[in-house]
Amino acid sequence: MAISPAPRPRPRPGRADALARWLLTLLLVAALLVLAAWAWQQPFMARPRALWELSRMPPPTSLPVPVQGVAPPQIAATFGAPRGSDRRHEGLDIFAARGTPVRSTTRGVVLAIRDRGLGGRQVWVFGPAGERHYYAHLDAWAPALAEGQVIEAGAPLGTVGNTGNARTTPPHLHYGIYGGDGALDPLPRIRAGR
Ligand SMILES: [Zn+2]
Predict the structure, then answer these.
(1) 93: CA distance to ligand 1 center in Å?
(2) From ligand 1's centre to the CA of 179, what distance in Å?
(3) Residue 46 exposed, middle or buried by CB count within 10 Å (0-12, 13-18, 19+)
(4) 152 partner at 20 to 30 Å CA-CA among 29, 45, 86, 97?
């Protein structure tokens, strides 16, 4: 009488399939991570990368004067001065001859280049710690400047003028810094830059 072999434990197909699926998922996730890391370093990601890096930086404790040839002691402390009955001066006025170069005080991303309202010809720059830097009353913009451009500190933004509501005043740069809670006085940091 033949002895039938003891029944072998049958492989459980369910478990093998689950393992294969799990390995495939792991492989896909790894591939996506590699792809994302590669893309993050590509030129088309320069702007998001700069915005990310800038927003993680601390606010600068010192800043250069944004107008060429002007020293900090020449700048009057007019931040917060009343402007009419319902407005306060949300920045500094830095006087210089029309056409004097205006340069970015920080590394940043150009948020806006426009001609409107009180500021006239203006440039907005997204800077370290997410602070927005406002350069207004420009006579002209720097020729190569473009919205979305990543710029280094010292990059030319334009030239001093009296556009916007500065029409009746001598040419000057209105320079403002806006943080999460509104306007900040740039002067202490410009004085610290000496
Ligand atoms: Zn002003």
Answers:
(1) 5
(2) 17
(3) middle
(4) 97
**In the prediction, which pLDDT does 88 show?**
93
Query: What integer is the mean pLDDT of 33-61?
Result: 94
Measure 113 CA to ligand 1 centroid, in angstroms.
Answer: 18
For residue 177, give the 3-state DSSP assignment.
strand
Q: How far is the CA of 108 from the centre of ligand 1 (A)?
A: 22
Give the model confidence (pLDDT) of 147-156 as tens digits.
999 999 999 9
Q: Residue 122: which of 113, 131, 132, 110 has the closest Cα?
A: 113
Mean pLDDT of 170-193: 96
Residue 49's contacts (CB-CB under 8 Å, 6 or more residues apart) are 40, 41
Rounded distance from Cα 174 to ligand 1 centre (Å): 4
Residue 150 C-alpha to ligand 1 middle, in angstroms?
Answer: 26
CA separation for the pair 15, 24 (Å, rounded): 14
Q: What's the rounded mean pLDDT across residues 118-130?
A: 97
Q: Is the pLDDT of residue 189 over 90?
A: yes
Distance 92 CA to ligand 1 centre (A): 5
